[in-house]
Amino acid sequence: MSVLVPEVRLAGRGGQGVVTAGELLGRAAIGEGRFAQAIPAFGPERRGALATCTVRVSDGEILLKFAAAAPDVLVVLDPTIWHVANVTAGMAADGILIFNSPRAPEDVEEELRSGRRGYRLAATNAQVMTVDATGIALEVLGRPITNTALLGALTGAWEMVTFEALERVIREHFGKNAEANVQAARAGREQLRRVTAIAQGG
C-alpha cells in the first residue's frame, strides 16, 4: 500500500448502511489489536444522496483526523452511485476497488477507464473486483442492505482485517439478525470476483 496508515473509502447512498459498515470495520480491526478510526461524510441532502466513510486501520496510533484523500481501498455499496459521482477520486495507484455489481470486474474496469461517465480511473495499477452484494442481500436478508456482504468481500481482498474478526462484531452488533448478516458476509467473501489475467500469446 502507498501510505503508512492504510485508508478505506466506503461509498454509497444515505440510508444504505455506509456509516454502520465503517463502524463494523473499525471495530473488527480493534478486536484484532489494531488501531482504527471511522470518519463519515455526508451533507444535508435527502436520503439516497452520496454518503462516504473513511476508515483507517494501523498497527500504531493514528493521528490523522480527516476524510480519505488518497484511499488504498474503495468499497462501493451502491450499484449506481459511481455512475454519477467520482468515487474513485484520489485512489492510490495500486489501490483495491470493490464494486457492488453483478457485472464482470473487467467490464467495470473498462468503463471506469473509458471516461464515459465524465471521469477516468487514474489509479494505474488498481485491482478492480466485483460482487453481486445486492443479489446476496435480497436472497439472504430479504432487503437490499449490502454493507455486510461487501465487508465480507473486503476481508477476501484486504489483509488488514480477517473474516473471523468481522464475524465477531457482526454477531455483537446485529443481535437476532446476526446469523443472516454473517451468511451475507460469508457469501460476499466467497463470491468476490477479480479481473482474470489473460495469457500472453494465446
Give the percentage of residues in beta strands.
15-25%
Sequence of secondary-structure elements = EHEEEHEHEHHHHE
Low-confidence runs of at least 5 consecutive residues: 198-202
Kindly state the mean pLDDT as a whole number? Answer: 90
Largest sheet: 7 strands, mixed
Would you tell me the structural class of the helices and strands? Answer: alpha/beta
CATH C-level class: Alpha Beta
Strand order of the largest sheet: 2-3-1-4-5-6-7
As a whole number of angstroms, the C-alpha radius of gyration is 16 Å
CATH architecture: 3-Layer(aba) Sandwich
Name given to the CATH homologous superfamily: Pyruvate-ferredoxin oxidoreductase, PFOR, domain III
Explain what this protein looks like in three dimensions:
The chain has about 200 residues and is of the alpha/beta class. It has a single domain (about 5-195), classed as Pyruvate-ferredoxin Oxidoreductase, domain 3, CATH 3.40.920.10. About 35% of the residues lie in helices and about 20% in strands. The protein has helices at about 20-30, 80-85, 105-115, 135-140, 145-155, 165-175, 180-190; strands at about 5-15, 35-40, 50-60, 75, 95-100, 125-130, 195. It has a 7-stranded mixed beta sheet, sandwiched between helices. The radius of gyration is 16 Å and the shape is globular.
